[in-house]
Amino acid sequence: MTHPQRPTPPADAAQRRAVRPTIVYEVEQLPAFDAEFYERARTGMTLVSETIVPRREGRTIRVPKGHLFRIVSVEGPQVGDLNLWNAADLTERFFSGKTRALHATHVTTGDRLWSTLPSLRPMATITHDTLAWYGYDADGGGVHDVIGTRCDPYTNQLLKGVPYHHCCHSNLTRALATTTGLPLSEAEPLVHDVLNVFMCTGFTHDTHQYFMKASPVRPGDFIEFFAEIDLLAGLSACPGGDCGSSHSDDVAPCYPLKVEVFAPRPESLVGWTSWARNSYVHP
Asked: pLDDT tens-digit profile of 209-218?
């Protein structure tokens, strides 16, 4: 990628660049992650459903509030693209940008997945992540990103001139349409930017371009969530496989993913209440 030549830096360029950064959102006032509560909810939970998401396809799963769900690697290294909707109101859906701003470019245990405006509330809380050990590598890569969008057929057509129907955007659209009965034209606008589950990504140090590299996920690894509201979750098993080489084609080896839903012991939720919608009111 080429760019026009940059202008000559001003005399005080170094001073301007040296300005101290300020964290945009001070999040100390948010309720802290209650590790004791979520561990109590996990203890003795009962498996109530399993869904296999076939390779290069998508599926939706209903998760009642107060339940937990896991996305599990089952056969080989595989990345998944996750959408979340309020099961009773599909216009309230996962807001990856605000999640990134409130937490980080990559999320793990203790982070929350926030919903779109005007609701702006936690939809799910990450309660366990077997890849939390990864952190950030020398390339600046981390796991479970909220910076990428989702592979889609429109960008693929733009860059390659080739139609491809198993992009994550398309998989999620078809899965949502199948579940809700909506025509594809109405389901598609409800599909949104994702949590890239298991995906290892970052920005290059030199050009600051978004990159992907082979995911460290292995069979048996999982990321687990607590549903803070009634959820409809959509998951696509990305055609990029472990996203170490390519995506939006049938070249990469791909594997299915499994979604498990668990019911906690009722007594473990005593005192817990689902998050209310944001209290802001327009003047």
From this structure: 999 999 999 9
d(CA 65, CA 124): 9
Q: Give a yes or no: residue 7 inside a domain.
A: no
CB-CB contact of 42 with 255 (8 Å)? no
| Within a domain: 253 | yes
List beta partners, residue 82: 195, 235
Global pTM reads 0.96
Quick check: helix, strand or coil at residue 62?
A: strand
CA angle 72, 131, 170 (to 5 degrees): 50
Give domain status of residue 140, yes or no.
Answer: yes
- Percent of the chain with pLDDT strictly greater than 90: 94
Torsions phi, psi for 185 (to 5 deg): -65, -25
Angular region, 241: left φ>0, alpha ψ -120 to 50, beta rest: left
Give the DSSP letter of residue 20. Answer: P
Residue 138 in any domain: the answer is yes
